[in-house]
Design brief:
By secondary structure, this protein is an alpha/beta fold. It has helices at residues 36-39, 49-66, 81-89, 103-115, 129-134, 158-163, 178-181, 186-193, 203-221, 248-255, 305-315, 323-335, 346-353, 360-369, 390-401; strands at residues 10-15, 18-23, 70-74, 93-99, 122-125, 143-148, 165-175, 224-234, 237-246, 258-263, 270-274, 292-298, 344-345, 374-377, 380-386. Strands 5-4-3-6-7-9-8 form a 7-stranded mixed β-sheet, with helices on both faces. Helix 2 crosses helix 3, helix 2 crosses helix 11 (305-315) and helix 9 packs antiparallel against helix 10. Bound molecules: S-adenosylmethionine and zinc ion. Residues 264, 266-267, 269, 284, 286-287, 289 line the site of zinc ion.
Length: 402
């Protein structure tokens, strides 16, 4: 594009209410299998628009809760699109601080800030995210909202982010390292998140719980307790939004929500084990097989219904491209707010039992008829969240499939 002093091809994109200059991704794809965002000199991923849309809604819902002006930080900003959107699309945002270690990214982010007339309201820095966050870790300098949206895991930034967050501040975390979190690289998950994953049908929920569990223990070291207001698993990533509250007792209270999930791969039985002490039970109470352990992880709520309702209200009138998908996601997430931990993926059960897959709605109806709760889950379109034991779920499926 002419007039822009960048050493790489660029193009203009519109997202939400802003228009920004980004690397021209098509210039970096030579083979069909190549992943253009990671090839470009500055990171930009159009597929994360939904992630950014939801962040805008969450931030506005949070600002309305606080009913005052807020300061916002995006320590890994890429081309700056997210920070620019926060400044333009969220009422009550006094100042946004964006940063990226890549000088080309900081330059492009600065360009996008000026292009949108935000030079006074959005400041751009170019240093390591932890260094940047640490500069704001002192009282009265801290942020109301920090959005950590890295490549892979947010864990390397958790400590500095927690320290730079005000009492009552909101922290948003993206994790795209699904192979460790879903148990494909189990050791990497233990190393990074301090908890063991499991390759179960509900591994995406475990991933959110491992991420929140890691945040809980990091925050507890600073005598900070956390409360999750929203989380979701979408495409290739998970995301969690948690409010931090200062106080040793609140940190202890959060730690009491930690525990383990025990899972039987033979009969689909699963159960919670509360507390940080590793459970001794190793035999499945249903079939006697060896139980597998996931955790320690967060066993508490992974969203707040009121917060999700506010996010839904905020979606109204914004004309987001993916409004329908967003509203469907928020409704599903809300429905499962009070439901049991973990869900059953009926296709996996049918696979194991060698049965044809019945319609999900019929499975849920029959589970309810048997006297249990049953709701769909946003984590998996073939999943049912229920308090029914595995043998009831299997009986229902067998009855419907034969
Ligand atoms: C996934 S991209 C950010 C995308 C952006 N949040 C968005 O919504 O478009 C991650 C960014 O983190 C930057 N980065 C990687 N390591 C960093 C570090 N240690 N400190 C600051 N930025 C870093 C990369 O240059 C990259 O631009
Ligand atoms: Zn079993």
């Amino acid at each position: 594009m002419q007039g822009l002093n960048f050493s790489f091809p660029t193009e203009i994109v519109e997202e939400g209410k802003v228009s920004v200059v980004v690397p021209k991704l098509s210039a970096y794809v030579k083979e069909a299998w190549e992943y253009a965002p990671s090839k470009a000199p500055v990171f930009y991923n159009p597929a994360m628009e939904l992630n950014r849309d939801l962040a805008v809604l969450a931030l506005q819902a949070y600002q309305k809760r606080l009913r005052r002006e807020i300061s916002v930080c995006e320590p890994l900003t890429g081309c700056g699109i997210r920070g620019v959107r926060f400044s333009v699309e969220v009422d009550g945002v006094r100042k946004v601080f964006v940063n990226d270690i890549n000088p080309e990214a900081a330059k492009l982010a600065r360009f996008n800030v000026e292009r949108n007339g935000l030079a006074e309201r959005v400041s751009v820095a170019n240093e390591d995210a932890n260094l940047f966050l640490s500069r704001y870790a002192a009282p009265r300098k801290r942020f109301d909202y920090i959005d950590v949206d890295p490549f892979g895991s947010p864990v390397p930034y958790l400590d500095a982010a927690v320290r730079a967050l005000r009492d009552g501040g909101l922290l948003a975390l993206t994790a795209t390292d699904m192979a460790p979190l879903c148990g494909v690289h189990s050791k990497a998950c233990v190393r990074k998140y301090g908890g063991k994953p499991l390759r179960t049908g509900y591994c995406h929920e475990l991933a959110v719980r491992l991420l929140v569990g890691c945040l809980t223990t990091v925050a507890a070291r600073h005598e900070i307790g956390i409360k999750v207001v929203f989380s979701h698993s979408t495409d290739h990533y998970i995301r969690a939004y948690a409010v931090a509250h200062y106080g040793a007792r609140l940190a202890d209270k959060s730690l009491r929500m930690m525990g383990y999930i025990l899972h039987c791969f033979s009969c689909f039985h699963r159960e919670k084990s509360e507390g940080m002490v590793s459970p001794l039970k190793i035999e499945c109470p249903e079939c006697g097989s060896k139980l597998n352990i996931a955790g320690p992880l967060w066993l508490g709520k992974i969203l707040d219904e009121d917060f999700c309702s506010s996010m839904k209200r905020e979606a109204d009138g914004r004309r987001l491209k993916r409004e329908k998908r967003i509203l469907r996601l928020l409704s599903l997430v809300q429905e499962e707010a009070e439901a049991s931990v973990t869900y059953y993926v009926i296709d996996k059960i049918c696979d194991k039992l060698n049965l044809p897959v019945p319609p999900l709605i019929e499975v849920m109806d029959n589970i309810k008829k048997a006297g249990f709760q049953a709701t769909p889950t946003h984590f998996n379109s073939r999943g049912v969240r229920t308090n029914a034991p595995a043998n009831v779920v299997k009986e229902v499926i067998t009855k419907l499939s034969t």
